[in-house]
Amino acid sequence: MEQWPSGFDTPGAPRNPLAWLVSTARHKALDRLRRGRTFVAKAAEIAAIAPTSEPPAELDDDVFPDDLLRLVFTCCHPALALEAQVALTLKTLCGLGVEEIARAFLVSPPTMAQRLVRAKTKIRDAGIPYEVPGAAMLEERLDGVLRVVYLVFTEGYAATAGDAMVRRELCAEAIRLGRLLRTLLPRQPEVSGLLALMLLQDSRRVARLDAAGDLVTLEDQDRGLWDRGEIAEGVPLAESALRQGGAGFYAVQAAIAALHAQTARAADTDWPQIAVLYALLLQLHPTPVVALNRAVAVAMAAGAETGLRLLAEVEERGELAGYHLLPAAKADLLRRLGRAEEAAVAYRQALALATQGPERRYLERRLREVAPGAAAG
User: Fold this and answer.
1) I want to staple 343 with a disulfide (CB 3.0 to 4.6 A). Which of 202, 287, 334, 366 is the partner?
2) What is the pTM of this model?
3) Is 104 within 8 Å of 155 (Cβ atoms)?
4) Which sign, positive or negative, has the C-alpha torsion 204, 184, 192, 264?
5) How far apart are CA 30 and CA 361, in angstroms?
6) Helix, strand, coil proportions of the chain in percent (round to 5)?
7) Cβ atoms 198, 178 nearer than 8 A
């Protein structure tokens, strides 16, 4: 019902419906077996870190609809700092490496490795128990759980390194967990906001790369390739999140994604509204990455010069010194203004920091446009 209407060359059904059903059932069964094996292994790994405690007496076995979700809530213990909860869960349960987690937190891999060691040491020394939380304890752990799911999706949507821009299995798993979270906590607006955000971002997945596997930016994407089913599911969720709880971190991002998703042509994008939403997001979550995104939105709404001034403020703070998207954004605005030499310098800076194959090829292509014959160096 979900995939047949739009997921094939001929709308309505795959070429061989019976073979598709058998193959899909087999993959579902294998996924379930794999998750079962992973649950046993990861539960043992957590138990080795933390002392074991009996589950709370009020725990209903039906509280958690999924083993992995149960473990994520178990790992996100409020006795740990939020960053430690999230980093340890990503490492222990979600299979992300130290380098991937470090890039998510904009720190060096050695720094992240030290934080993980300190978190494990605190669990041991403070006697923080490995216990599955009861229903009454879920909300106090929700921030960490949402952050874990969000960062798993982010790593899948824009991998930090390698030749694969998108890791589809991570996106799919994050969306699966998001749906389960909404089943578990249907009245939490940020749960709806996160699920909406992931669906709306994932709806653009196919259009983000061309046939050669090269990056296609949002303004150049073929919007006919966007997944209308995910958009139809995500937009009402985004609206519901805003109605239920006002402006939350995930709800505001979902609102931004919904504005993009509902725009048929890039030229018609409501950049002034998006810039306002990013300003609100910056108040809620005053991080340098949000400030960078706001600067780009302002540039699209009010002109590249204005955006460059905001980018300069972000750059001066030095918090994104190793973040390739800062010089990449600067280079793009300089290119739009016709300042080719300055753009070439910024593109080279971005290339020196970028580790992802399709992104590097995109930056190299842009560098050749502003400086024909230039080498990436």
Assistant:
1) 334
2) 0.79
3) yes
4) positive
5) 36
6) 70, 0, 30
7) yes
Query: Bridge partners of 209?
Result: 215
Rounded CA-CA distance 9/137 in Å is: 47
Secondary structure, 3-state, 204-243? CHHHHECCCCCECCHHHCCHHHCCHHHHHHHHHHHHHHHH
> 3-state class of 186 per DSSP?
coil
The DSSP code sequence of 247-290 is S-HHHHHHHHHHHHHT-SSGGG--HHHHHHHHHHHHHHS--HHH
CB burial of 66-97 (b: ≥16 within 10 Å; e: otherwise) equals bebbbbbbbbbbeebeeebbbbbbbbbbbebe
Residue ranges of alpha helices (H) inside the chain are 17-49, 67-75, 82-92, 98-104, 109-125, 138-157, 168-184, 189-202, 228-245, 249-261, 271-284, 288-302, 304-317, 325-336, 340-353, 357-370
Cβ neighbours of residue 227 closer than 8 Å, sequence gap 6 or more: 6, 202, 203, 204, 205, 206
Per-residue pLDDT of the chain (377 residues; tens, 9 = 90+): 666 665 555 556 666 666 556 556 655 655 555 555 555 555 555 555 555 444 443 434 446 778 888 888 888 888 888 888 888 888 887 778 888 888 888 888 899 999 888 888 888 887 877 678 888 888 899 999 999 999 999 988 887 666 666 788 889 999 999 999 999 999 999 999 999 999 999 999 999 999 888 999 999 999 999 999 999 999 999 999 998 876 899 999 999 999 999 999 999 999 999 999 999 999 999 999 999 999 999 999 999 999 999 999 999 999 999 999 999 999 999 999 999 999 999 999 999 999 888 999 999 999 999 988 665 55
What gap in Å lies between CA 182 and CA 282, rounded to an integer? 26
- Do the beta carbons of residue 307 and residue 299 sit within 8 Å? yes
- Classify the C-alpha dihedral 165-170-172-177 as positive or negative: negative
User: Sign of the CA dihedral 242, 144, 74, 95?
Assistant: positive
Beta bridge partners of 215: 209
